[in-house]
Amino acid sequence: MDISTLIRERRSIRKYQDRDVPREVIAKILEDALWAPSALNRQNWQIVAVRGEQKEKLVEAVAETNKYFKPRLEKLFSEKIVNVTLQFLRTLGGAPVLLLVYIPKLVAEIRPGMSSLERYHHEQGRLTSFLSAAALMQNILLLATAEGLGTCWMTAPKIVEDEINEVLGIEGQELVSVIPMGYPDYPDQKPPAPPRKDNKVRWIGFEQK
Ligand SMILES: Cc1cc2nc3c(=O)[nH]c(=O)nc-3n(C[C@H](O)[C@H](O)[C@H](O)COP(=O)(O)O)c2cc1C
Questions:
Q1: 3-state DSSP call for residue 168?
Q2: Could you give the number of structural domains in the chain?
Q3: Which residue of 6, 12, 145, 179 sits with most ligand 1 atoms within 8 Å of its CB, as the best mutation to test the pocket?
Q4: Which of 55, 159, 170, 190 is least enclosed by beta carbons within 10 angstroms?
Q5: From CA 55, how far away is CA 65, in angstroms rounded?
Q6: When comparing pLDDT for 153 and 84, which is higher?
Q7: Domain range spanning residue 109?
Q8: pLDDT tens digits, residue range 151-178?
Q9: 50-80: b (≥16 Cβ within 10 Å) or e
């Protein structure tokens, strides 16, 4: 698949086959993904790959987010969408593997009216760590797609980050996102691509002469 097709073909997958993903396949994806750019080449990210019993415990912890999301989703979406979303949060689509991406835990205190220099000093450590981790995560998503695997980038589990870290025995690190991974289960058809918006590029200095 060429890069353009790969980017367009990747979808957020919310239902997975009951089929294990070989460790070597995951390891190859992560090895390549770790060639992502990182601020100051710090590479201060950490990927935690979980399956089996610990994964089930994480699914249970994330299922608790239903309580928080249900009333919010009900205000915004139709019953069908609410049910599908809550079902995914309850089960993580039956994904056999969860990848969790972490960065060092840093605090950034941003106040209104700060100059860009002050903001930079306060937030650059946390901000650039997040951005670097995001580049790593997009690599993971694309490489997984190329392997025929499905993924879904998830920040909803951050609500139960404390519980997740307790299950994994993690301290002093901040959870960036969770990625369920597995072979997609499409009994009917691949999920349709949510439409993309126009007018997201502003061109300056490109006028025809
Ligand atoms: C930062 C970020 C957080 C996301 N968090 C969630 C999430 O918690 N739960 C979920 O089901 N999807 C989540 N998504 C997936 C988006 O809903 C999805 O990417 C978007 O609807 C476009 O669909 P596509 O990925 O199939 O192109 C997240 C995506 C991003 C980039």
A1: helix
A2: 1
A3: 12
A4: 190
A5: 16
A6: 153
A7: 3-182
A8: 999 999 999 999 999 999 999 999 999 9
A9: bbeeebebbbebbeebeeeeeeebeeeeeee
